[in-house]
């Protein structure tokens, strides 16, 4: 278990519904240009969280893991897109660079599953969420902000989700 810095948030989601609700709260706070990096083993709840993020973002599109297509796009009524990249099948940051992540991020927000595999290709300012399987229904999450935008985003998320 990593040692948390004071701006990180560590909590346990008690159900898939709670994981989705946390995603909804986060998605509602996101803006075009934001980068959310998800890390965690298979079954740790990454796609469930993204379902909530897309809903909070304002998209009505169904969310599925883009393992075989690499990137899914979820639109919201104002025309902004949420890009959902699954880096599981990528072998290097170089392969990710071929996807022109900066262009995706400029035209919307970007959520990356298996982000640790392509970390060198991602902008350093981001919000990292390390997810872990606890038991059949519970998932642990450590959310760590990198950069002022994400420190403020996490503070607001914490206030809305937990009060205070």
In short:
The chain has 164 residues and is an alpha/beta fold. It has helices at residues 16-29, 46-57, 93-97, 101-106, 148-162; strands at residues 9-13, 35-39, 71-75, 81-86, 108-113, 126-133, 139-146. It has one domain: P-loop containing nucleotide triphosphate hydrolases (Rossmann fold, 3-Layer(aba) Sandwich).
What is the approximate shape? Answer: globular
> In terms of quaternary structure, what is this?
single chain
Q: What's the CATH H-level superfamily name? A: P-loop containing nucleotide triphosphate hydrolases
Instruction: Give the strand content.
Output: 25-35%
pLDDT below 50 for ≥5 consecutive residues: which ranges? none
How many helices? 5
Q: Please state how the strands of the largest beta sheet are arranged side by side.
A: 1-7-6-2-5-4-3
Give the beta-strand count. 7
Instruction: Using the 3D structure, state the CATH architecture.
Output: 3-Layer(aba) Sandwich
Instruction: Give average pLDDT, whole number.
Output: 88
N- and C-termini, Cα separation: 25 Å
What is the CATH topology classification name? Rossmann fold
């Amino acid at each position: 278990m990593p040692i948390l810095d004071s701006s990180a948030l560590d909590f346990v989601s008690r159900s898939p519904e709670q994981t989705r609700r946390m995603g909804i709260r986060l998605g509602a706070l996101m803006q075009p240009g934001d980068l959310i990096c998800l890390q965690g083993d298979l079954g740790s709840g990454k796609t469930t969280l993204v379902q909530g993020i897309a809903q909070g973002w304002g998209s009505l599109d169904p969310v599925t893991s883009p393992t075989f297509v690499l990137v899914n796009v979820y639109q919201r009524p104002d025309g902004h897109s949420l890009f959902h990249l699954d880096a599981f099948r990528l072998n290097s940051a170089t392969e990710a660079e071929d996807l022109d992540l900066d262009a995706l991020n400029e035209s919307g927000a970007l959520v990356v599953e298996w982000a640790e595999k392509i970390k060198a290709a991602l902008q350093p300012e981001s919000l990292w969420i390390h997810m872990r399987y606890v038991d059949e229904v519970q998932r642990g999450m450590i959310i760590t902000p990198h950069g002022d935008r994400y420190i403020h985003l996490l503070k607001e998320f914490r206030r809305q989700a937990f009060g205070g």
